[in-house]
Design brief:
Layout: H1 11-22, E1 28-29, H2 50-60, H3 63-70, H4 84-97, H5 106-115, H6 132-145, E2 164-169, E3 172-177, H7 180-185, E4 187-195, E5 204-210, E6 213-216, H8 228-235, E7 237-244, E8 249-261, E9 265-271, E10 273-280, E11 283-290, E12 300-302, H9 309-347, H10 354-376, E13 383-384, E14 388-398, E15 406-414, E16 417-422, E17 425-430, H11 431-435, E18 445-453, E19 456-457
Parallel strand pairs: 1-17, 6-9
Antiparallel strand pairs: 2-3, 4-5, 4-8, 7-8, 9-18, 10-11, 12-14, 13-19, 14-15, 14-18, 15-16, 16-17
Helix pairs in contact: 2-6, 4-5, 9-10
């Protein structure tokens, strides 16, 4: 399939057309927040491609994923899908070099639609709108299955590598590359099965590997989750029927699930869609409509209450260390403030008003935010797990139906500043605007949230 989705025009001509249609003179805007930098490049919408653009922006935020792409070299033999990571690497490179100008996804989209024609739809009508989560999951599946693995091409162990899985062969220890999506997103879930029909039935346990977590917006009783934590709790505790030999029939169980290991990057999908039966002249069919309910989500999410007892034991040390570090940092910040205040007092003849105190404290807060970013984006494996995660990106859906509406990506830039990627219109916003995305009526509803582990620095 050859898909000529975007005419080959210059960036300047594209910018002129964009300005004529929208009245917006540039593709980047940060002046309203006094940011001394240009915004990153957006992606051109070639027609119902907002789901793809938003998802790719979210993947681009994952630095470890980008490192794996940069070192990726496709096997010269095998399925054509092995070139998909190569095209994505080239696309990200173009975005890095575009200096804020919009980038077109032609080559990547052409290859993806050729390999996955179900995402293109009817050839006669052009690409159709798709579910961003389904596209997100498809990329994870493809990259896991076709060689996007470690950052190293070596196959024998020389020390250790976070993306290589040790295994024995012929009595020697080797490193087997671990698929990068598994390394970044995979978590172990412990299930406990409690029989609801017989208290004497022994509690059974099982384990699963998940790549993302779902949160319930509207449960089967019609109750709405007020926040992500409540939706997560409902997802991890539900009634399920399964066959038992004792009763020789399907039996009701309460399945209580908990995290038994945690990922570096936590992906949370809010279950925004409900299946509805529709009767038309052509007969009965089902559609997935959006649940128009407000769900709050935090900047920092603590998974400790949802962890297994064994994992909690492993997390306790990191949490104690984190509290210790936080106390030391706050004490140091207070001392620095006292020293600055003392210096200002000497310069101003012994007088320091509230305005000057506020300026001094604001200076220290800015330093603290920069320090926080350095700690937040430390390399995986360089800190001690705490069970704490911080929001660094999300995809929202605007509209009433999964097969219509509009997807937008939002990613953390620095400190309290974020970037909004509305296709090729890129703007800077503050964290307050992010936390106010509640999905009221047809406004932006958080759909996929990307959180990064917030470890405590290792004790020296």
């Amino acid at each position: 399939m050859k898909l000529d989705i975007i005419p080959d025009i210059s960036y300047e001509d594209h910018g002129r057309i964009f300005q004529q249609i929208t009245g917006v003179a540039t593709y980047f805007s940060s002046a309203n927040l006094n940011l001394q930098e240009k915004m990153p490049s957006g992606l051109v919408n070639f027609g119902n491609s907002c789901y793809m653009n938003a998802t790719l922006h979210l993947f681009r935020k994952i630095s470890d994923f980008r490192k794996a792409l940069e070192s990726y070299k496709p096997n010269p033999y095998g399925h054509k899908i092995r070139f998909l990571p190569e095209e994505l690497k080239e696309l990200f490179k173009q975005m890095d070099e575009a200096e804020g100008r919009p980038v077109r996804t032609n080559k990547f989209a052409n290859l993806f639609f050729e390999l996955r024609p179900e995402f293109y739809g009817d050839d006669t009508e052009g690409p159709s709108q798709q579910d961003a989560e389904e596209f997100f999951q498809k990329l994870i599946d493809d990259f896991s299955a076709f060689g996007l693995c470690s950052l190293s091409n070596t196959n024998t162990i020389q020390g250790t590598h976070p993306l290589m899985m040790p295994h024995f062969m012929n009595g020697q220890l080797h490193l087997q590359p671990q698929a990068i999506p598994n390394h970044l997103f995979q978590m172990s879930i412990l299930h406990e099965w409690h029989c609801l029909e017989d208290d004497t039935y022994p509690v059974e346990t099982s384990k699963d590997l998940w790549m993302k977590v779902n949160t319930i917006v509207l449960d089967t009783r019609g109750e709405v989750s007020e926040n992500i934590q409540e939706g997560l709790e409902k997802c991890l505790s539900n009634e399920i029927q399964k066959y038992t030999h004792r009763f020789n029939r399907d039996t009701r169980f309460l399945r209580k699930s908990s995290f038994d290991s945690l990922p570096s990057y936590l992906v949370i999908q809010q279950m925004l869609w409900e299946r509805k039966r529709v009767l038309t002249e052509e007969g009965e069919h089902f559609v997935r409509e959006k649940i128009m309910k407000t769900v709050k989500f935090p900047r920092v999410l603590d998974l400790y209450p949802f962890c297994s007892s064994s994992l909690k034991t492993r997390l306790d040390y990191g949490r104690v260390l984190q509290q210790k570090r936080f106390g030391e940092f706050e004490e140091k910040k207070q001392k620095e403030f006292n020293n600055l205040k003392e210096e200002a007092t000497l310069k101003n003849g012994g007088i320091v008003d509230e305005k000057l105190e506020a300026e001094l404290w604001s200076k220290l807060e800015a330093q603290a935010k920069r320090h926080h970013d350095e700690e937040l984006y430390r390399a995986p494996g360089t800190g001690t797990e705490t069970g704490m995660y911080e929001l660094i990106g999300l995809i929202t859906h605007q509209g009433y139906s999964m097969n219509s509406g509009h997807y937008v990506a939002w990613t953390h830039l620095k400190e309290d500043y974020w970037v909004k990627y509305d296709d090729d219109n890129v703007t800077a916003i503050r964290i307050e605007d992010i936390l106010n995305l509640r999905g009221v009526e047809d406004s932006h509803a958080p759909y996929i949230c990307l959180l990064y582990t917030s470890p405590s620095p290792r004790d020296s």
